[in-house]
Amino acid sequence: MTWEAGQGHYPYQATIDAYGDGGFRFAEMSHKGSLICLPSGMYAWEARAAEDVTLASLARVIETADSIDVLLIGMGPDIAAISPDIRETLRAKGVIVEAVSTGSAIRTYNVLLAENRAVGAALISVEKAR
User: Is the pTM of the predicted complex or chain greater than 0.70?
Assistant: First the structure.
């Protein structure tokens, strides 16, 4: 099964099995485009580049912030700064935010999820896995 960005929602949180070629593999499915991973499931995300990471694009995360302790933001192939407003908004809700490369975010997300931690991730898709 393949997802296209904007199509929907997988109703369970899952580890990321692979990434690259503009998408992700999880739960025996392939998703093209960026992805938000929350305890309520996996969601297509319209962000394509670091400048697309805004309070508005993270609205789903902010609305469900009470269900996570840590949010990992995969900023693409490299680390990029996020707006202080994002960090402050989530900190006020008790969420720790880490903005790193997408590959680093996936590795940390998978470890925390395996430890049954309350973790979320917002992952910008990349072409090449590192």
Answer: yes
Q: Which of 45, 41, 46, 7 is nearest to 27 (CA)?
A: 41
CA distance 62 to 53: 13
Residues 77, 103: Cα–Cα separation, whole Å: 7
CA distance 79 to 72: 12
Mean pLDDT of 18-27: 96
What average pLDDT does the structure give for the chain? 93
pLDDT score recorded for residue 7:
56
Spatial CA neighbour of 62 closest among 81, 84, 88:
88
pLDDT value at residue 130: 73
Q: What percent of the chain has pLDDT over 90?
A: 90
Which residue from 63, 72, 71, 68 is spatially nearest to 106, judged by alpha carbons? 72
Sheet holding 23-26, edge to edge: 2-4, 29-32, 23-26, 18-20
Query: Could you tell me the residue ranges of all domains in the chain?
Result: 2-123
CATH number of the 2-123 domain: 3.40.1230.10
